[in-house]
Design a protein that fits this description.
This protein has 274 residues and is an alpha/beta fold. The protein has two domains: 115 residues, 3-Layer(aba) Sandwich (Rossmann fold); 121 residues, Hypothetical Protein Tm841, Chain: A,domain 3 (2-Layer Sandwich). The protein has eleven helices and 13 strands. The strands form three sheets. The chain has a six-stranded mixed β-sheet with strand order 10-9-8-13-11-12, with helices on both faces. The chain has a four-stranded parallel β-sheet with strand order 2-1-6-7, sandwiched between helices. A three-stranded antiparallel β-sheet has the order 4-3-5, with helices on one face. Strand 9 and strand 10 form a beta hairpin. Helix 3 crosses helix 4 and helix 5 runs antiparallel to helix 6. The longest helix has 15 residues. This is EDD domain protein, DegV family. Keywords: Lipid-binding.
Length: 274
């Protein structure tokens, strides 16, 4: 079985290769110039360009042809494709995959992660592990539906700069937030991104992330926790240390957040998937 996803998944390259996961890239536009995510633009280069830009980058779903090529190759090699994508509530990427599926026919299943970044990536890895164990596609989808309900994704925003640039928040609100050192925390709920709370200061915000993990009231000792960061590795590693100290999980995966979600989170943003 060929597992396919899109470039919003933020799965480290070595894991993509280890599980033979195919990534269909989205497209990024910065200051009028277009880039293919992960191919023509690295994560680090993206944050450099975004910081210098006066506007907010624009993202666009993969072309239908990109999906057609990936699906045809997957069917040719394995006879079966499971394609898992960014929340349909946030992007037209899944719709694009469905269009390609309907054009080709064949044994292709499309699954809506109702999430993004490692919230998507962890589901993709789960599917790849199950496929490696020999699970059939219907069983994998059943397990993914359960897992999709279980996982929680919380995002800390260092600033509202990108929300202002994107027209979603007024400059006045940004000034007030900066004045009182207010840090928004958002989460993914039913496929949408919604504001969860606002906390004064980064230290309190980091403690709040830990508290939310505690409130889940489960053992993390056999679980993988995912962290993605928007060009703030030091903060991500500090959070990793706190999570290990507090919960002793099986693993804490740290990677950079790509342009698709990083565009909205902004530099300094941190995402935790647990």
């Amino acid at each position: 079985m060929q597992i396919i996803t899109d470039s919003s998944c933020d799965i480290p390259k070595e894991l993509l290769e280890a599980y033979n996961i195919v990534v269909v890239p989205l497209n990024i536009e910065i200051d009028g110039k277009n880039y293919v995510d992960g191919i023509e633009l690295s994560h680090h280069a993206f944050y450099e360009k975004m910081q210098k830009s006066s506007g907010i980058p624009k993202t666009a779903q993969p072309s239908t042809q990109s999906f057609l090529d990936a699906f045809k190759e997957g069917l040719q090699k394995y006879g079966e494709v499971l394609s898992i994508h960014l929340s349909s509530k946030l992007s037209g990427t899944q719709d694009g995959a469905m269009v390609a599926k309907n054009m080709i026919g064949g044994n292709i299943e499309i699954f809506d992660s109702l999430n993004g970044s490692l919230g998507l990536g962890m589901q993709v890895l789960k599917a790849a592990q199950l496929a490696k164990e020999g699970c059939k596609v219907d069983k994998i989808i059943e397990k993914l539906e359960e897992y999709r309900e279980e996982i929680k994704v919380v995002v800390y925003l260092e600033s509202l700069e990108n929300a202002v640039k994107g027209g979603r928040v007024t400059k006045t609100k940004e000034v007030v937030a900066n004045l009182f050192n207010l840090k928004p925390i958002v989460h993914v709920e039913e496929g949408y991104v919604r504001v969860l709370k606002t906390v004064r200061g980064k230290k309190k915000a980091m403690k709040s992330l830990i508290t939310m993990m505690e409130e889940k009231n489960i053992s993390f000792e056999d679980r993988i926790i995912g962290i993605t960061h928007c060009d703030c590795l030091e903060d991500a590693m500090k959070l990793k240390e706190e999570i290990i100290k507090k919960f002793n999980p099986a693993e804490v995966m740290v990677t950079t957040m790509g342009p698709v979600i990083g565009t909205h989170a902004g530099i300094g943003g941190l995402l935790v998937c647990f």
